């Protein structure tokens, strides 16, 4: 067995905790009739190549972006930052958002890639990024696609989830994070 790194051990522990939550918790997005047979989410193997250094550009006057949802009216977010990085030899860019009037520091990074609709949920996947301190233009941060996850609407149509805007559609294959949920 190969030696695992701290981030990989933490990733595997987070995945186990999430699987327990999805199997047992009353607020799990897995419909109750599927929880008994739920044996955990399907993930791509952890891969350090999908932990990328990204340069941040912070938008002092964030523009509003209206995101379509899977089941309901569009929602408004503010484009607060842009992350530029290289992935699989391609120059890429993802925008990070915050809901309008939100006081949270967490940045929402919805995206699609070339696995969307095939190996991963057809509505795209999400990442969240929590900056350490005040994020400033020129800061280098780590975007970890191993943490990419399917929104709750991938498990049940009762949820309404924002769809990644076209500006966050990557033209590369990102086999990292969660795969399409399969419920029995």
From TrEMBL:
**What is the protein name for this chain?**
DUF1684 domain-containing protein
Q: Where is this region: Disordered?
A: 1-41
Composition bias (Polar residues) maps to 1-12
UniProt biased composition (Basic and acidic residues): 13-23
């Amino acid at each position: 067995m190969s030696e695992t790194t701290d981030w990989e051990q933490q990733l595997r522990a987070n995945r186990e905790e999430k699987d327990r939550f999805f199997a047992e918790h009353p607020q799990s997005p897995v419909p109750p009739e599927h929880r008994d047979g739920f044996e955990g989410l399907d993930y791509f193997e952890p891969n350090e190549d999908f932990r990328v250094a990204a340069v941040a550009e912070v938008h002092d006057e964030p523009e509003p972006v209206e995101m379509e949802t899977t089941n309901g009216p569009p929602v408004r977010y503010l484009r607060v930052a842009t992350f530029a990085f290289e992935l699989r030899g391609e120059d890429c860019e993802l925008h990070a958002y915050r809901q309008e009037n939100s006081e949270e520091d967490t940045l929402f990074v919805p995206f699609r890639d070339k696995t969307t609709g095939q190996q991963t949920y057809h509505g795209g996947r999400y990442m969240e990024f929590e900056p350490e301190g005040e994020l400033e233009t020129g800061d280098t941060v780590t975007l970890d696609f191993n943490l990419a996850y399917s929104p709750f609407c991938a498990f049940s149509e009762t949820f309404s989830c924002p769809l990644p805007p076209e500006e966050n559609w990557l033209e590369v294959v990102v086999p990292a994070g969660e795969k399409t949920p399969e419920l029995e």
